[in-house]
Design a protein that fits this description.
Number of helices: 3
Strand content: 25-35%
Strand order of the largest sheet: 2-5-1-6-3-4
Order of helices and strands: EEHEHEHEE
Number of strands: 6
Distance between the termini: 13 Å
Oligomer: single chain
Length: 109
């Protein structure tokens, strides 16, 4: 049901609960699965036009996301602005990632 410019959140273990969003909770134990593993799994079937991450994310995490997404632009913004995008998403996938600020919002093309 993802349409043009809809967004999907892939969140780490500590991400706040958003009761108004349909949430798929995949967290099993620490780091199984991670945000990157879920992103890698869905990326081939998700027509991603752009992505958003918190500026506070570790540079290595941002680079790993950029590699998975290929040439898709990854925009960095303050985590407060990032969380402001969440209520507009069509859904949220919660992972068991323990990396701080590993969260990503994918916007469909």
């Amino acid at each position: 049901r993802v349409r043009h410019t809809n967004t999907l959140v892939i969140a780490d273990r500590g991400f706040p609960f958003w009761p108004q969003l349909e949430t798929v909770d995949l967290s099993l134990v620490d780091d199984i699965p991670t945000v990157l593993q879920v992103l890698t799994a869905i990326q081939p079937n998700f027509g991603c036009g752009s992505a958003f991450m918190a500026r506070e994310a570790a540079p290595a995490q941002v680079e790993r996301v950029r590699r998975v997404l290929g040439g898709v632009p990854v925009h960095l913004e303050e985590h407060v602005a990032f969380k402001g995008r969440v209520p507009k998403a069509i859904g949220l996938i919660r992972t068991a990632d323990t990396v701080p600020y590993a969260n990503i919002i994918l916007e469909s093309a």
